[in-house]
């Protein structure tokens, strides 16, 4: 393994993040605060509690997940799309690095950024609601795995995208709906039976459910299944990336 | 000593079916400056891309210092530096950061002193802390070279380093290249400026339509392939050339004062002596003689024309 190269890519990406730190942090914090005000306070005051948790607290894990998934995806996709767009990708392709090293560098950085933003939102949540975390280690583990797997997905999108519109397309058309319908703001058990069944095909349900379990000890699906689902998702993304680099798809001529 | 870069029967066919390289064979000697000369679309960039790992060859092999560029890509690529044709740089980055990044990417330990030395070599030392977007076009091109040199490669590929660069900067660039050669770096540059190949190359390769037509020592190529012209200045203007001289390849200038004789330096007999005797016999008195070597440009145009016909 060329760890020097991995470190170089990671540091390069993190520098870019810190160069725009204000805008990187202000917008997720602002939008999360708005969610708390609208869903937590305005609407939440009319809902007693969900599975024994006040509605304001109930949506915290979902909100963190919503931001983390979006941020991990967009950061990773932009991270690899930008060099393709401005042409600096030639350097990556001609360097003595393999797909794993490039992926660790970019995905690691994107996941770190998402984790950073997730933590900030978690802290922000304390200002709005009372929450306690029952399984802190599991919470961190779920958060990290989510950051990494969505960064992997974003990385694939960034390689696939041929223009800025396509770069926005998947996050907007696929990820946002999946996250909203994945139980960010409600428990899956609140849905009619048919929709409960349909929802089970949404991978995000397993992530949010597992994450929520780490907070409140209650989940829509067993934790083991959540873990298996996220592991499967990660493995699928890694396989896709390995194939991309092996064939040079959308990267090498 | 074996060649530092050895290209064997390299072919590249793009998905569109376009055959950019049609079985290229090329040996690049250690420490030389090789200029690859060819018209636009000849396959120069594709050849470099296939050697450096940016394009995947359809077939054929490339070795760099004995390392196969596919099987042993880490060792091969570590020896290569690439300066692309386009100015591909991250605009918001600082010059020294960009060069240090390239060094890290190639797996070399951080070494600010080395980075500073490279920047000095390219006269970029006072721009080290500047953002790339603040630099002029010529400076950016130097940054590209600095990035390619960051990991101390043994072979440097320069893809049209002086395309769209003004004359002064072009000369600067040539000095940089010859400095690098003095440091023992092998340099391959592509160009469609013949003047450039003529000025700095040790050997010249001519590439056209995906094939290498010729690779030869520059001076040798010019003497062997070159056609020379002998200009004879006459004491009195002639209205036309005498019939007796029609066997020679002669031309009379419009003012009738100069007779130009074109001959091939490769021929056993240039025919200069007999031609001059015959001129004299016809009563054309000469006052001065001048010879002129044809340029690489003419050699090149002729070769490409021959290939097309």
Question: How is this fold's topology laid out?
Answer:
The complex is a heterodimer of chains A (253) and B (309).
Chain A: H1 3-19, H2 21-43, E1 49-50, E2 53-54, H3 55-86, H4 89-94, H5 99-126, H6 136-160, H7 164-180, H8 193-199, H9 203-216, H10 223-247
Antiparallel strand pairs in A: 1-2
Helix pairs in contact in A: 1-5, 2-3, 2-5, 3-5, 3-6, 3-7, 3-9, 5-6, 6-7, 6-9, 6-10, 9-10
Chain B: E1 5-13, E2 19-28, E3 33-37, H1 44-52, E4 59-64, E5 67-68, H2 73-78, E6 80-83, H3 95-105, H4 112-121, H5 137-149, E7 155-159, H6 167-182, E8 186-191, H7 194-200, E9 203-208, E10 211-217, H8 218-225, E11 227-234, E12 250-252, E13 258-264, H9 272-281, E14 286-293, H10 296-308
Parallel strand pairs in B: 3-8, 3-9, 6-7, 7-8
Antiparallel strand pairs in B: 1-2, 1-4, 4-5, 9-10, 11-13, 11-14, 12-13
Helix pairs in contact in B: 3-4, 3-5
Protein model, in words:
The complex is a heterodimer of chains A (253) and B (309). Chain A has one domain. In chain A, helix 2 (21-43) runs antiparallel to helix 3, helix 3 runs antiparallel to helix 7 and helix 6 (136-160) packs parallel to helix 10. The longest helix of chain A has 32 residues, at 55-86. Helix content of chain A is 77%, strand content 2%. In chain A, strands 1-2 form a two-stranded antiparallel ribbon. Chain A contains ten helices and two strands; from the N terminus they run ααββαααααααα. Chain A has helices spanning 3-19, 21-43, 55-86, 89-94, 99-126, 136-160, 164-180, 193-199, 203-216, 223-247; strands at residues 49-50, 53-54. Chain A is globular and about 60 Å long. In chain A, strand 1 (49-50) and strand 2 (53-54) form a beta hairpin. By secondary structure, chain A is mostly helical. With 309 residues, chain B is α/β, with parallel strands linked by helices. Chain B folds into two domains: 5-222, Rossmann fold, CATH 3.40.50; 227-293, Alpha-Beta Plaits, CATH 3.30.70. Chain B has helices at 44-52, 73-78, 95-105, 112-121, 137-149, 167-182, 194-200, 218-225, 272-281, 296-308; strands at residues 5-13, 19-28, 33-37, 59-64, 67-68, 80-83, 155-159, 186-191, 203-208, 211-217, 227-234, 250-252, 258-264, 286-293. A six-stranded mixed beta sheet of chain B has the order 6-7-8-3-9-10, sandwiched between helices. A four-stranded antiparallel beta sheet of chain B has the order 2-1-4-5. In chain B, helix 6 (167-182) links the parallel strand 7 (155-159) and strand 8 (186-191). In chain B, helix 3 packs parallel to helix 5 (137-149). Classes of the chains: A mainly alpha (253), B alpha/beta (309). Chain A binds chain B through residues 2, 4-5, 7-9, 11-12, 15-16, 19, 82-83, 86-88, 90-97, 248, 252-253, and chain B through 14, 46, 49, 52-56, 73-78, 80, 82, 84, 86, 88-92, 97, 101-109, 147.
């Amino acid at each position: 393994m060329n760890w020097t190269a991995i470190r170089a890519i990671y540091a390069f990406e993190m520098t870019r993040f810190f160069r725009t730190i204000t805008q990187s942090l202000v917008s997720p914090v602002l939008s999360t605060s708005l969610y708390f005000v609208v869903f937590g306070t305005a609407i939440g005051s009319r809902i007693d509690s969900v599975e024994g948790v006040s509605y304001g607290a109930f949506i915290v894990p979902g909100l963190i997940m919503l931001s983390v998934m979006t941020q991990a995806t967009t950061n990773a996709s932009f991270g690899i799309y930008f060099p393709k767009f401005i042409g600096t990708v030639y350097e990556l392709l001609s360097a003595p690095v393999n797909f794993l090293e490039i992926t660790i560098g970019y995905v690691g950085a994107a996941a770190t950024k998402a984790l950073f933003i997730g933590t900030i939102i978690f802290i922000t949540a304390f200002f709005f609601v009372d929450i306690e975390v029952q399984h802190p280690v599991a919470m961190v583990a779920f958060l990290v795995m989510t950051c990494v797997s969505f960064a992997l997905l974003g990385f694939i999108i960034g390689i696939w995208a041929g223009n800025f519109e396509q770069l926005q397309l998947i996050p907007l058309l696929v990820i946002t709906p999946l996250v909203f319908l994945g139980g960010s703001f409600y428990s899956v058990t609140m849905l009619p039976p048919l929709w409960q069944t349909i929802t089970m095909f949404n991978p995000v349900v397993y992530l949010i459910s597992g994450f929520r379990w780490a907070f409140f000890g209650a989940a829509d699906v067993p934790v083991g299944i959540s873990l298996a689902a996220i592991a499967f998702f990660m493995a699928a993304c890694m396989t896709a990336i390995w194939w991309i680099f092996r064939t040079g798809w959308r990267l090498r001529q | 000593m074996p060649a530092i870069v050895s290209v064997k029967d390299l072919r590249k066919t793009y998905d569109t079916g376009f055959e950019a390289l049609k079985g290229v064979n090329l040996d690049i000697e250690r420490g030389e400056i090789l200029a690859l000369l060819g018209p636009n679309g000849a396959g120069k960039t594709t050849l470099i891309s296939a050697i450096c790992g940016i394009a995947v060859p359809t077939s054929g092999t490339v070795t760099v210092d004995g390392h196969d560029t596919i099987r042993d890509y880490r060792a091969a690529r570590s020896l290569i530096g690439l300066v692309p044709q386009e100015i591909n740089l991250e605009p918001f980055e600082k010059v020294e950061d960009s060069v240090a990044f390239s060094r890290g990417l190639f797996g070399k330990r951080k070494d600010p002193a080395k980075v500073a030395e490279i920047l000095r070599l390219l006269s970029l030392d006072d721009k080290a802390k500047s953002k790339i977007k603040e630099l002029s076009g010529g400076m950016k091109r130097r940054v590209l070279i600095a990035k390619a040199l960051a990991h101390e490669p043994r072979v440097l590929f320069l893809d049209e380093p002086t395309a769209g660069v003004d004359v002064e900067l072009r000369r600067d660039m040539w000095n940089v290249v010859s400095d690098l050669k003095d440091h023992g770096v092998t340099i391959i540059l592509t160009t469609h400026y013949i003047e450039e190949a003529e000025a700095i190359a040790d050997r010249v390769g001519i590439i056209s339509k995906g094939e290498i037509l010729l690779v030869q020592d520059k001076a040798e190529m010019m003497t062997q392939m070159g056609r020379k012209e002998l200009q004879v200045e006459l004491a009195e203007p002639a209205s036309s050339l005498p019939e007796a001289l029609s066997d020679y390849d002669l031309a009379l200038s419009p003012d009738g004062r100069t007779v130009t004789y074109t001959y091939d330096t490769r021929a056993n007999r240039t025919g200069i002596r007999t031609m001059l005797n015959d001129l004299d016999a016809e009563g054309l008195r000469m006052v001065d003689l001048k010879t002129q070597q044809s340029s690489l440009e003419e050699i090149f145009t002729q070769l490409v024309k021959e290939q097309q016909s």
